[in-house]
Amino acid sequence: MWPGAIAVIFGLLAASSWMQRTSDGAYGHGWIFDLAVIAAAGLVCLIYALGVARGAMSTVPQQRWRHAAFAAGIATALVALEPPLGALARQFFVARQIQDLLLGIVAPILIVISSPRSALISGMTGESRSSETPYQVDDMDLRADSFRQNAGGTALAIVVLCVWLYPPFQNATVASALAEMALNVTTFGAAFVFWSLILDFRPLPAGAGYGSRLMMLWIMALSHIVIGTYLTMKTEILYSAYGATDALSDETVGGFVIWVPSALLCLGAIIMVIHLWGRHEDRVWAKYSGWSSSNSAALLFPTTGEQLITLARPKNRALAISLTSFVIAAFGLTIFGGILNHINNERGVATPTSLVAQHSTAIHRSTD
């Protein structure tokens, strides 16, 4: 009953919102609040509050900061979708990328770290469920499932990013309310899947391996760097549907938003995953310290320095290769950007870097 009623209500609200936009002729430039988005946010918060009030129990304690993180995530999504940013995203490419940054990284991270699953289930059904699923299969099967989920979640997030940056699709979001809704829904949905895998508090075999999470973040950051570098360095206009007076500068700054802030947020997530990794190892060591020196404990934990080095060597090697590859890739992209900028300058094309250099030269000449 719940899913059916929710689908009908939001279908009617979305239809009325589209009809209002098209009838007023103000879709492209009007600051119209979307009733469907506001109602969806209010309903989700109501369900969450009901679940918390019913005392939903989870393996992850629901502290006050988690409630604050959930509220901040919903508020971030509203800021991204509603005016003024929601209206400016239909006029400027840079505003669209700021909106995608909030929907694709900031809001999903805040909602995921709040661990709202048990509270939402309790709010909708009245039942209290644990976020842990009993293991019914072998550990190797769980690890294989985890690998497929990690690869699929990472590929989904990158594909959604690339598809909506394809010029015909990006231009369609400016003129079509349906295309814009598809962009926002798929961006948030793919990002929520990706960050749910990254910030899962459960270690292997239930959650993804911490090394795999670092690799996923490395691939995601690298994809943003590559795409953002191209959009920042290019010299032609790709998204002609936006109404910015200086379209090339608008797309250049938009590419910078994809490039730098997204990579910095991924770096912050890498630090958080390393912190979770350290907490997990502390719990394992605390469990080992509480055991007696039995044969079963000796089989699971190293008892000498040589055994510890042998056990840790493959993991340390994989982590070192991953971090070195990331540094080499970032350094290579920097060199590529410099070469591309040099080629453009040789051709006489004014790129943002060359404009800054010309402006500095003019200042020095005037000073002399």
Give descriptors for this structure.
368 residues; mainly alpha; flat
What does this molecule look like?
The chain is an all-alpha fold and 368 residues long. Among the domains are: 140-290, no CATH class; 300-368. It contains 14 helices and no strands. The chain has helices spanning 2-24, 35-53, 64-81, 85-88, 93-113, 117-125, 139-165, 167-175, 177-198, 210-233, 247-289, 295-300, 305-346, 352-367. Helix 7 (139-165) packs parallel to helix 10 (210-233). The longest helix is centred in the C-terminal third of the chain and has 43 residues, at 247-289. Residues 22-29, 130-142 and 349-364 have low confidence and may be disordered.
Share of residues in helices: over 70%
Largest sheet: none
Mean pLDDT score: 76
Taken in chain order, the helices and strands follow as HHHHHHHHHHHHHH
Please report which band the strand proportion falls in: under 5%, 5-15%, 15-25%, 25-35%, 35-45% or over 45%.
under 5%
Uncertain segments are: 22-29, 130-142, 349-364
Number of helices: 14
Q: How widely separated are the two ends?
A: 78 Å
DSSP E strands, number: 0
Compute the gyration radius: what is it? 24 Å
Helix/strand structural class: mainly alpha
Tell me briefly what this model is.
The chain is mostly helical. Among the domains are: 140-290, no CATH class; 300-368.
SSE order and pairing:
Elements: H1 2-24, H2 35-53, H3 64-81, H4 85-88, H5 93-113, H6 117-125, H7 139-165, H8 167-175, H9 177-198, H10 210-233, H11 247-289, H12 295-300, H13 305-346, H14 352-367
Helix pairs in contact: 1-2, 2-3, 2-6, 3-5, 5-9, 5-11, 7-9, 7-10, 8-9, 10-11, 10-13
